[in-house]
Amino acid sequence: MDVPVIFEIINDAAGAYRGVIPTDCWAEPYMSGEELRREIEGGVQFWGVEEEGRLVGVMGIQHVRDVSLIRHAYVRTAKRQKGIGGKLLDVLRVQTSRPLLLGTWAAATWAVRFYEKHGFRLVPPGEKDALLKKYWNISDRQVQTSVVLADEKWFEQHVKGQGTGG
User: Fold this and answer.
1) What average pLDDT does range 31-39 have in this prediction?
2) Contact 122, 149 (CB under 8 A)
3) Of 7-21, 42-56, 93-107, 149-163, which range is least confident?
4) SS3 105
5) I need a labelling partner for 58 at 20 to 30 A (CA). Which of 31, 44, 86, 123 fits?
6) Which residues make Cβ contacts (< 8 Å) with residue 1, sequence separation at least 6?
7) Half-sphere exposure of residue 45: CA atoms within 13 angstroms, side-chain side
8) Peptide bond into 124 cis (omega under 30)
9) Number of domains in the chain
10) At 51, which CATH number?
């Protein structure tokens, strides 16, 4: 996949966070090219949706320990609300048999609603910090201001006492 186009999509779509997430968490660009390269080198595999030969949305999956993480889900601003994110999520779900977790900004209520609409549930606040620290490499400030959502498979395993593994 074309890394410069992924970079363009991420930073176009991330404009939705401007003025929503804490100002000390905002950067311009939102994700640098170097950060994107590190994410890819760290195992994030990006998938995309094209329309008329043009990439319009991307979403990554990263296998970490005993789970798979949905990472960096972005759709071009002009193409939102057209089912692209749902298509990407459907593609990624079949890429793993592991439980799925994802993190997003707590203030990004539209993102939380999107994932809930697609069958994910918020992890209880008492567990989300531990999950963010175990599976993600993010700042303490981002941990404080984020939520974690999980698929039904994660909740089933967690309720059965299997915990988060590790």
Assistant:
1) 97
2) yes
3) 149-163
4) strand
5) 123
6) 46, 47, 48, 55, 58
7) 11
8) no
9) 1
10) 3.40.630.30
Contacts of 75 (CB under 8 A, 6+ apart): 9, 13, 56, 57, 82, 84, 85
- Tell me how far apart the alpha carbons of residues 42 and 144 are, in angstroms, rounded to a whole number: 23
Single out the residue of 116, 85, 109 nearest to residue 9, CA to CA: 85
Q: In terms of Cα–Cα distance, which of 30, 76, 32 is closest to 54?
A: 76
Q: Which 8-state DSSP code applies to residue 73? A: E
pTM of the model: 0.93
* First-to-final CA distance of the chain: 31
Q: Which residues on adjacent β-strands are paired with residue 101?
A: 69, 150
| Distance between CA atoms of residues 84 and 8, nearest Å | 17
Q: What element of type H or E holds 48? A: strand 45-51
What H or E segment, with its residue span, contains residue 145? none
Q: List phi, psi (to 5°) of 145.
A: -105, 15
Cβ burial 83-105 (10 Å sphere, 16+ → b, else e) = ebbeebbeebbeebebbbbbbbb
Residue 162 has pLDDT above 90, yes or no: no
